[in-house]
Amino acid sequence: MADDIVDLIMKIVLLGPPGAGKGTLAKMLKDALGLVHISTGDILREEMKADSHLGREAKQYIESGGLVPDELVTKIVENKFATDSSLKDGYMLDGFPRTVPQAQDLDKILAKTQVGFDYALYMESTLPVIIRRLTGRRVCRSCGAVYHMVNRPSKKEGVCDSCGGELYQRADDNEETIRKRMDVYLENTLPIAQFYEAKNRLRKVNGDDETEAIRDALLNEDKK
Ligand code: AP5
Fold first, then answer.
1. How many C-alpha atoms does 115 have within 13 Å on its Cβ side?
2. 223: pLDDT confidence band, cut at 50, 70 and 90?
3. Which residue among 119, 125, 180, 217 is least crowded, i.e. fewest CB within 10 A of its CB?
4. Helices 70-83 and 53-64 sit at what angle, rounded to 10 degrees?
5. Cα–Cα distance between 6 and 29 in angstroms, integer?
6. Domains observed in the chain
7. What is the DSSP secondary structure assignment for residue 61, as one 8-state letter?
């Protein structure tokens, strides 16, 4: 089990289609190991909520299922790596890189900051599973906890178990936008798997498996 492992350092990229379970796994690894979780999607949604210049710019891309321009997203990650010294104790990049140019930019950021990198974890999944997961996903407006109406329901409908906040459905979690996000993923993000495979830094897991099983397999494997 994950509970007895406290001193493992992981520096990884979570790669996979929308709904593969990247955010859910990241939360579990964060709880188990205290790794820093950097989700560019979460950061951009926070900017949208704050109605910042970046948030207003990102909104049009996110709500239509497209990608926010590389230079805007890379800047967020670059700042994080330049300013957060705790990343050397382990991190998970979730949703970045998402294009080959972003993967190349990440290589440059890593070379400059010397923070280190272990591997990209590719979570494979299929469209019917993805549609079921994302149309049923609910997120806490206050703390960002993620639920699923069927797979991981909150105890009280519409209310977060952790903080009592209101649960909402993301604007891009409707079937039409999910299909668009999947097309964008296949065209722009999937080639990154080959990018890391060519460097011998790609590890594959089945995102359709139970997240707890994926977490335990990773932790036990890395412990060896
Ligand atoms: P982002 O927020 O990164 O969305 P995404 O990649 O589409 O991923 P999701 O958050 O939808 O899925 P997930 O894999 O984290 O699934 P989760 O664990 O929640 O990005 C959103 C948008 O921001 C992009 O479309 C783009 O516009 C923009 N953006 C972000 N980064 C960018 C970048 N680098 N460049 C350009 N643009 C960028 O799980 C989903 C559901 O399934 C949940 O309800 C969960 O409870 C359930 N579930 C998960 N795992 C399991 C399981 N094993 N079994 C059963 N249910 C499960």
1. 28
2. low
3. 217
4. 120
5. 10
6. 3-125+183-222 (3.40.50.300)
7. H
Ligand 1: nearest atom to the Cα of 24 = 18
Per residue in 88-119, pLDDT (tens digit) is 999 999 999 999 999 999 999 999 999 999 99
Q: Which residue's alpha carbon is nearest to atom 8 within ligand 1?
A: 18
pLDDT, tens only, 127-144: 999 999 999 999 999 999
Active site (catalytic) residues:
22, 98, 137, 170, 181
185-210: average pLDDT: 96
Q: Is the pLDDT of residue 7 over 80?
A: no
Pocket test for ligand 1, best of 46, 79, 109, 151 (most atoms within 8 A of CB): 151
Find the distance separating the first CA and the last CA of the chain, reported in whole Å: 14
How much is the average pLDDT of 31-52? 95
Atom of ligand 1 nearest to the CA of 136: 44
Q: Which amino acid is at 150?
A: V
Residue nearest to atom 29 of ligand 1 (CA): 41
Question: At residue 212, does pLDDT exceed 70?
Answer: yes
Nearest CA to ligand 1 atom 57: 21
What value does the mean pLDDT of the chain take?
94
Dist CA 6 CA 32 (whole Å): 7
Residue with tokens 């993620």: 146
